[in-house]
Amino acid sequence: MPLALLALAIGAFGIGTTEFVIMGLLPEVAGDFGVSIPTAGFLVTGYALGVMFGAPLMTVLGTKISRKRMLMLLMGLFIIGNLLSAVAPVFAVMLIGRVVASLAHGAFFGIGSVVAADLVAPDKKAGAIAMMFTGLTVANVVGVPLGTLVGQSAGWRVTFAVVAALGVVGLVGIAKLVPELPRAEGVRLRHELAAFKNAQVLLAMAMTVLGFGGVFAAITYIAPMMTHVAGFADGSVTWLLVLFGLGMVGGNLIGGKYADRALMPLLYVSLGALALVLALFTLTAHHKVLAAVTIALIGALGFATVPPLQKRVLDQAHGAPTLASAVNIGAFNLGNALSAWLGGLVIAAGLGYTAPNWVGAALAAAALLLAFVSAALERRAGSRSADAPGTDTPGTDTPGATPTEHRTAVSH
């Protein structure tokens, strides 16, 4: 794997840290600014919305410059946003800082995925994408707990200053290590937009929303579930989230390894197992050891879907994948927001703190159904191409493997 992937992973580590560390620092931030915890929660909501809308916006704005230069500009935006949060004199300024930082998130991962895939051979693309996303997963194991500890002991402003410094390291790394990759000739914004006419691209994004939404339906409410149902102490939640992060790291690496070999079979297994584990979590949540194991499994199975889904979008949007890749990052955050809302509804309906697990299981099962639909449509398209005059007879590739995806993408 090229050393340039390390620079992308460092940037991803900083972004992942700033996204999630605020959740552990909300009481301190709320106390300093004299606002309520729900009001401070807008720092989380505002960031998520910034990712959703910033991903396509920043990608479109960057169509005229090289991907390397755009990655550097995005890291600069990330640094400015975190510095603004660190020195914010009032709550509104900090909220603005969070939104500014979030605008870099979706486009960085979207463009970074394209760059990472272009740095390696075709049969290593998913592994390269996973290597970049390792920075995001490791952030949940190292960056978030350490950032929370620093924020609670030295002050939350110090945490955001340190995150900004990580952004500087990432920026320098990108400038020094990421090569100037040639842009595809003749690709314009209209070509990027045309990718959304491809049903397979839309299906992959829908799988992203539902599959990762299944994860966050449970994890969003992990604190009350573990303290009120499993009987853990409040202080144990941080280490349970570390377990979740460790699962994410392992799942991401496994997903990257096997997505290059059998993409769709990997999605069948990971989404099906995720739906099953989430359903079982309604039972294992009552037992401390089983609950801890289940949390790690949810992290592993959930993030095992990330490299294959991101690669699926890149393959199906062949030739103009940048905007589709960035929008798919926004789809992860849309899934997070949707599942958190649905999970809150079932709790508010009096169904208990374990009820969001059923919501998550249903969402993951729906994603699995879409995976089967996507593969069926792909096989049908391949059959039509084989029957058409002047086309070669397809080989025996497993549906979802890279060659098959490439043929389907070209046919669209």
Order of helices and strands: HHHHHHHHHHHHHHHHH
Largest sheet: none
| Percentage of residues in DSSP E strands | under 5%
Helix content: over 70%
The overall pLDDT, averaged over residues, is: 83
Number of helices: 17
Give the uncertain stretches in residue-range form: 391-412
Oligomer: single chain
Q: In terms of structural class, how would the helical and strand content be classed?
A: mainly alpha
Distance between the termini: 31 Å
Number of strands: 0
Task: Tell me about this structure.
This protein is 81% helix and 0% strand. The chain is globular.
Please tag this protein with its features.
single chain; mainly alpha; 81% helix; 412 residues; 17 helices; disordered C terminus
Secondary structure layout plus pairing:
Layout: H1 4-33, H2 37-40, H3 42-61, H4 67-87, H5 91-118, H6 125-154, H7 156-177, H8 189-194, H9 199-219, H10 222-230, H11 237-259, H12 263-284, H13 288-303, H14 306-316, H15 322-348, H16 355-387, H17 402-411
Helix pairs in contact: 1-3, 1-5, 1-6, 1-7, 3-5, 3-15, 4-5, 4-7, 5-6, 5-15, 6-7, 6-11, 6-14, 9-12, 9-13, 9-14, 9-15, 9-16, 11-13, 11-14, 12-13, 12-16, 15-16, 16-17
Quick recap:
The protein is mainly alpha-helical and 412 residues long. The chain has helices at residues 4-33, 37-40, 42-61, 67-87, 91-118, 125-154, 156-177, 189-194, 199-219, 222-230, 237-259, 263-284, 288-303, 306-316, 322-348, 355-387, 402-411.
